[in-house]
Amino acid sequence: MTRQSPHYWLIKSEPFKYGWDDLVAEGEGTWDGVRNYQARNNLAAMAVGDEAFFYHSREGLEIVGICTISVAGITDPTDETGKWAAVKVKPREKFAHPVTLAAIKAEPRLAEMQLIRQSRLSVSGVTAQEWQVICEMAQD
Do 67 and 92 contact (CB within 8 A), yes or no? Predict the structure, then answer.
C-alpha cells in the first residue's frame, strides 16, 4: 500500500525550553526527548515533506507556525536504549495570527482533533480537514 503524502501533524514544545524562535535560529531542529509510546509511533510514521503545526504548550497555548519534516526515521539521540524515535524539522511559516487553544476548542469543526481529545499527547496527527480549518483561522 502506498502512503499518501503529505501527512499532517502537531508537535508541542514549551516555548521556554524550545520555542518557534529557537527553531528559526537553528534553521533545522531535532524533535527528540519524546517518551510516550503513541507520540513515538507518530514520530516514526512521519515522512520527509510532511508538515506539522508548531504548538507552544504551557505558555501561550497556541499554534504559532508550520514546520516541515526534513529528516525522518531517526533514533532519538537522547535515548541510550534505541527504542525512541525522532525527526528533524525546518521552519516553514510563522503565523501572523497564532491560533489559540481556546479558539480551537470553540471551533465545532475541530471538536474531534487529537489536540483536544488527548491533550497531553506531545506529537499528534492532524486530519487534512483540521489542517485546512486551522490554516484558515491563522489568516483571520
Answer: yes
